[in-house]
Amino acid sequence: MTQFTRRQLLGAGLGTAALGMLAGCATPGTASVNGGPVIAPVASGEKITLKYWSWLKDLQKVADIWNESHPNVQVETVWIPGGNSGGYQKIFSALATQGGPDLAQVEMRSIPEFMLVNGLVDLTRYGAQETAHLYDPTLWSQVSYTGGVYGIPQDSGPMGMFYQPAVLEKVGATPPATWNEWGEVAGELRKTDAYMDCFPLGDASVFAAFATQAGAQWFRAEEDGWVINMTDPATMQAAEFFDSAIDKDLVQTAYGAFSPGWFAAAAKGGLASVTSGSWADALIAGVSGGEGKWRVAPMPVWDGGSGFGSSYLGGSTAAVLANSKHPKEALDFAVWMTTSKEGIDAMINNSGIGWSPAPGFIGTTRQKPSPFFSGQNYNQEVFEPATLQQNPDWSWWPVTTQSLNILSDGFRKKATGTSLVETMSIAEKQIMTVFKNKGLSIRREAS
Amino acid sequence: MTTTHPSDQQQRGTTPQGNTGNRVPRRPKAQSRAPWILLAPFLALFLLTFILPILVAIASSFTKVTRKGLFGEAGVTSEFAWFSNYAQALSDGNFVASIGRMFLFGIVQVPVMIILCTVLALMLESTSARWPGFFRAAYFLPYGVPGVIATILWSFLYVPGLSPLIDIAGMFGLEPDFLGPNTVLWSIANIVLWSYAGYNMLIIVAQLKTIPVELYEAARVDGATTWRIARSIQLPLIKPALVLTTVFSIIGTLQLFAEAQVLKTVAPSIDSQYTPNLSAYSTAFAYNDYNVAAAQAVLIAAVALILSFAFLKFSNRKSS
C-alpha cells in the first residue's frame, strides 16, 4: 500500500468531492422517459415483481388476489405516509436518485407536479386509451394532459353533506339545499352553541372544491402556456360567502375536519354537519358513539342557478413512475385493480378506498344500506348521482401544492383582517411568480 | 468538561505542541501510516456523508433549472445562476417570516431554558435537596422521549375538547387557545423546554460536581449563605457549561423542525414554512425546488454559524 501524504489525501478527497459536485449539479428530474423508446412487455414465462408504494392500508391483500392469478407478475406493496405528510417526499427523493417503485399512489391534484419533474410515464404509450371508457370522464380528464395519460384513477371523493339529524332538529332544521339556506341554519345553530361545520383555513383544497362546484376553472392549459383565473365570478361567489360566514362566526375555524378537536366536538354534538368527500364515511364511523346519529344529504348548491350539484374532494391515482422497468405490466395491474369487480371490492373491504372511479360498479357493500348511517343507502342515494353532477372543466396544474399552501397562508391571515376575496387576487399574483420562477409560461385570463 | 473553557485551552496548548517537533524528529513509515489507516474508515464516511453533501448543496444552490412549455416537455435547461436562488429565497415572504419567528423564539426560549436548567441544577446540588437522584432522573426523563412522540403527547394537552388543561381552565372561566396564531409558537417552546431542560441541567450538574468541596467549606467558614455560594462560587465556575448549553440551545432553535411538523396536524395556524428548516424541507420535497431549498439550507447554516461564533466571541470577551 502506498503512503498517502496529507496533501494527497486532501487532493483525493477534493477530487471525489468535485466529481460528486458534477453529479450533483445535474438537478434531479430534468430528463424525460417519455421521449425514450417504449419498453416492451416481458416475454411470457419470465417472472417479474412490481413494487407499489401507497398509503392505502392492507393493500397487499388486494395485490395478493392479483398475484394468485398472475404468477409471473407479482405485485408487492409498500406502505408510505399519505401524500404530502411524507409519502411524496419519499417518492420525489427516490425519483431524484433514479430509483423508486413501478407504481405509486399519486393524488389527482399532484399528477402535474410529478410530470414537472419527469416522474411519470405517459400511459397512452402503453395502451391506456383503450381503457378510458371504463372510467368516470371527469376523473379521466384530470389525469389527461397534453394528449397523454399520467395516472390510472383509483379512488375519488364526490362530495355530499354528512349531518347529525338530532343536532339540526334542535333548531327545527332539515339539511339545507342551497348554500344560502346553509348559512341561515348555521346562524340558528350558533344560538345553541353548536357550529354547522368547520372552515379549514389551513387547507385550501376544500375551498378549491367549493369553488369548483360553483363553476370555477382556475387553470387552463393552452398552446402558448398556462392561463390562470382565480378571481372569476364563481370563485368570488364562494369566497364572499365564506368571508361572511367567518365574519358572522357561522363556521368553526379553530380546527379542521377529522382532526382530534373535530372528533371531540362531533361526538358531543357541537358540530351539525360536515360537507366532504364520500370517503368521509369511514372517518365519521370513528366518531365515538356516532352509530345511528348521522345521515347523508346532497351537497348544498350555489344560489343563482350557476355551478354544479357536487364537486370532487381528493382522489388519487395509481401512477407508473418514470424508472419502472415494466410499465406495461404495471398499467395492467392498475387497470385490473380499479375496474374489475374483485379488485374494487377488495380495495373497499381491505383498504377502505373512497369512491370507485369506475362508474360501472360502486362496490358490493356500497349497494346496501349502512347500519351506521341510520340504515340509509346513502351511496346509491347521494353519491352515485353526485358523480354525474361534476364540473368537467377543472384541471390541476404543476405547482398545486405550493399554490394551495399560498392560498392557505393567505386564508390564515383572515384572523388579522385579510378577506378571502382579497387573498384570491394576491395569491393569483404569487402563483404566477412561482410559475415564472420555474420558467413556465403563464398569463392572466383576459377579462 | 472542564477543558472546554477557551482560555484554559489556549494556555495548555502552547507547551506540548512546542515539544513535539524536537522529540520525534522522524517516525518510521509504518508508524506514520498507522493513524491514516485507522482514520480511513472515519474519513471516508465523513467525506462521503458530511463534506460531500455540503459541497453538493452549495453547488446546487447556485444552479437554476428552467423548464419550457406546460410541463417542461419543450426543454429543460440547467445553468449557473449566481445568487438568484438566494435572492428568490430571501424574497419569499414566508421564508423570511420563518427566520424572524425563529429569532423571536430564540430570544425568549434560550434565556428561559438556561435560567430554568441552571436553577434546577443549583437546587438539586444544594445541600438541602431531598432525593436529588430521583429528581435528577425525573427531570432528565423527558429527554428520552423522542421529539415526535413528545409533540404528540403535548398535542393532546393543547387540543380543545380533549385537553384536561383547557377543561380545568374552563372551570375558572378561562378559554386558553394553545394553538392560535399568536400562541402556538410558545406552545412549541414549552415542548422544547420540557424535552431539553433536563438534558441541559445534567450538563450543568456535571460541572457543579467538579467544584472542589474545599471551596464550599471555606465559604461556609466565612459565613457565606447558600445564595452567596451560588452567586460567587457556583455560577462563575459553571460558566463553561452555561456557554455550552447556550450554544446547544441556539443551534437547537435553528433546527426547529419535528415539533412544528407534527403539531401542524392539529394546529391550522402552522403553515408549511413555519420554521426555516420546515421551509427548506417543503421547498425541496413538496415543491421540488431543490436549488432554492439548497440556498435556504445554506442560509440557515450561515446564520447558525454566525450566531454561535458571535456568542462564543461575546462570552470570551467578557471573561478576559
Characterise this structure:
Chain A has 447 residues and is an alpha/beta fold. Chain A folds into two domains: 48-156 and 313-370, 3-Layer(aba) Sandwich (D-Maltodextrin-Binding Protein, domain 2), CATH 3.40.190.10; 158-312 and 392-444, Periplasmic binding protein-like II (D-Maltodextrin-Binding Protein, domain 2), CATH 3.40.190.10. Chain A has 16 helices and 14 strands. Chain A has helices spanning 6-25, 59-69, 87-96, 111-116, 137-141, 165-169, 179-190, 204-214, 233-247, 260-267, 280-284, 327-339, 341-351, 378-387, 400-412, 420-437; strands spanning 48-54, 73-79, 103-107, 144-145, 148-149, 152-163, 197-198, 219-222, 225-228, 251-252, 273-277, 295-298, 312-320, 442-444. The longest helix of chain A is centred in the N-terminal third of the chain and has 20 residues, at 6-25. Chain A is globular. Residues 19-25 of chain A have low confidence and may be disordered. Chain B is mostly helical and 320 residues long. Helices cover 72% and strands 3% of the residues of chain B. Chain B is built from 14 helices and two strands; from the N terminus they run H-H-E-E-H-H-H-H-H-H-H-H-H-H-H-H. In chain B, strands 1-2 form a two-stranded antiparallel sheet. The longest helix of chain B is centred in the N-terminal third of the chain and has 33 residues, at 29-61. Chain A: Pfam families: SBP_bac_1.
Order of helices and strands of chain B: HHEEHHHHHHHHHHHH
Number of strands of chain B: 2
**Can you tell me the CATH architecture of chain B?**
Orthogonal Bundle
The outline of chain B comes out as globular
Rg from Cα of chain B? 25 Å
* CATH hierarchy class name of the largest domain in chain A: Alpha Beta
**Unreliable runs of chain A, pLDDT <50, ≥5 residues?**
19-25
Please count the helical segments of chain B: 14
What is the beta-strand fraction of chain A? Answer: 15-25%
Q: On the 0-100 scale, what is the average pLDDT of chain B?
A: 84
CATH topology of chain B: MetI-like fold
